[in-house]
């Protein structure tokens, strides 16, 4: 194995793919601070030009997971729902809103997320605006999950070694494989996921990577209108992983689940303040039909992915009941209250 990344850079510059061991070694060198920002930038560009293989990406994920700060909780049926970001759609925080609907349906949620990158409001930003404390340590997250059955894991607090990568990523200002791998690095090691991707190709790669890890059930998806969510304004390409066997993608029409399609404009959000107001309106029943239905739809996929609902139709009913019964609103209020409490306790 090389002690520097020079040999790796030479190989991928020649358009040769890395073996599993070489890919692992490259990522270990990057995460332990042995590689300069210039070399990291060269590595990212060369990988993008060559085209990353599933073997390479899976090796990267395994190394990055081992390097993360682990959240040690019972993940039985716990689900993470998030997106890669980068769709530049301007919709409100649909996955974050769905988090409380899912929790209100009795499904544990271990959501992994970050501040805004390409949108006006990331999951961190909108949770902060709602009055919750999203900036928690490992111990605080574990306590919060024990108290509420919900947690938000702020990515920078759990992937400390990625600080070596950030200068190169910021300088490049282009999408790299790190954009796709982020949602695969849940610090709690959840085995049930719904991941929205910036492209159909990325969604297909992600489901293959998940099939090589310890995932039990997952959906990866990309909608025809470009959203990294299950869309209510168009059909969505969805890959499913169940019992470690990934299927070909299926084109999902929201009308097949009883929803009417809406204009994309009806799903638009704004800054964290506006998006927080939309989320409050959804859980208290005063939102628009379009806002409620797109959250209900995404929550249904997460409930189904958890294994608690046998099919999407049952999951949809559970999501609707979560809102109608006030359970989703209670979960939001509980999350705000308890996250503040564990943050103050230190």
Describe it for me?
The protein has 346 residues and is an alpha/beta fold. It has 2 domains: 62 residues, Transferase, Pyrimidine Nucleoside Phosphorylase, Chain A, domain 3 (Up-down Bundle), CATH 1.20.970; 223 residues, Pyrimidine Nucleoside Phosphorylase, Chain A, domain 2 (3-Layer(aba) Sandwich), CATH 3.40.1030.10. The chain is built from 14 helices and 8 strands. The strands form 2 sheets. Strands 1, 4, 5, 6, 7 and 8 form a 6-stranded mixed β-sheet that branches. A two-stranded parallel sheet has the order 2-3. Helix 10 links the parallel strand 4 and strand 5. The N and C termini lie far apart (43 Å).
List the helices and strands and how they pair.
Layout: H1 6-13, H2 20-31, H3 37-50, H4 54-67, E1 79-83, H5 94-104, E2 109-113, H6 123-130, H7 138-148, E3 150-154, H8 166-172, H9 177-181, E4 192-196, H10 200-211, E5 217-223, E6 236-242, E7 245-246, E8 250-252, H11 272-284, H12 289-305, H13 312-324, H14 327-345
Parallel strand pairs: 1-4, 2-3, 4-5
Antiparallel strand pairs: 5-6, 6-7, 6-8
Domain count: 2
| CATH architectural grouping of the largest domain | 3-Layer(aba) Sandwich
- Shape call: globular
Class per helix and strand makeup:
alpha/beta
Q: How far apart lie the N and C ends?
A: 43 Å
């Amino acid at each position: 194995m090389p002690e520097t990344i020079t040999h790796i850079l030479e190989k991928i510059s020649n358009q040769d793919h890395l073996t599993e061991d070489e890919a692992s070694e490259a990522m270990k060198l990057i995460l332990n601070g042995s590689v300069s920002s210039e070399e990291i930038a060269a590595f990212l560009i060369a990988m993008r030009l060559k085209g990353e293989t599933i073997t390479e990406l899976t090796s990267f994920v395994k190394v990055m997971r081992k390097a993360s700060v682990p959240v040690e909780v019972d993940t039985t049926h716990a689900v993470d729902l998030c997106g890669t970001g980068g769709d530049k759609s301007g919709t409100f925080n649909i996955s974050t809103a769905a988090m409380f609907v899912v929790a209100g349906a009795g499904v544990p949620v271990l959501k992994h997320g970050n501040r805004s990158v390409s949108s006006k409001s990331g999951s961190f930003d909108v949770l902060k605006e709602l009055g919750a404390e999203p900036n928690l340590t490992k111990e605080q997250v574990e306590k919060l999950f024990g108290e509420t059955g919900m947690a938000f894991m702020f990515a920078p607090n759990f992937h400390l070694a990625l600080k070596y990568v950030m200068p190169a990523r910021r300088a490049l200002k282009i999408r790299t494989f790190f954009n796709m791998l982020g949602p695969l690095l849940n610090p709690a090691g959840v085995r049930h996921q719904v991941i929205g991707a910036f492209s159909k190709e990325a969604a297909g790669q992600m489901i293959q990577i998940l099939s090589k890890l310890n995932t039990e059930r997952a959906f990866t998806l990309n909608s025809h209108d470009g959203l990294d969510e299950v869309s209510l304004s168009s059909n969505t390409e969805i890959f499913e992983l169940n019992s470690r066997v990934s299927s070909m993608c299926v084109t999902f029409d929201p009308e097949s689940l009883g929803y009417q399609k809406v204009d994309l404009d009806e799903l638009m959000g704004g800054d964290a303040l506006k998006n927080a107001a939309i989320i409050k309106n959804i859980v208290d029943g005063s939102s628009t039909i379009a806002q409620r239905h797109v959250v209900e739809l995404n929550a249904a996929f997460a409930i189904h992915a958890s294994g608690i609902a046998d099919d999407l139709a049952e999951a949809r009913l559970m999501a609707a009941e979560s809102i109608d019964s006030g359970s989703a609103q209670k979960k939001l209020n509980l999350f705000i209250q308890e996250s503040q409490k564990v943050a103050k306790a230190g």
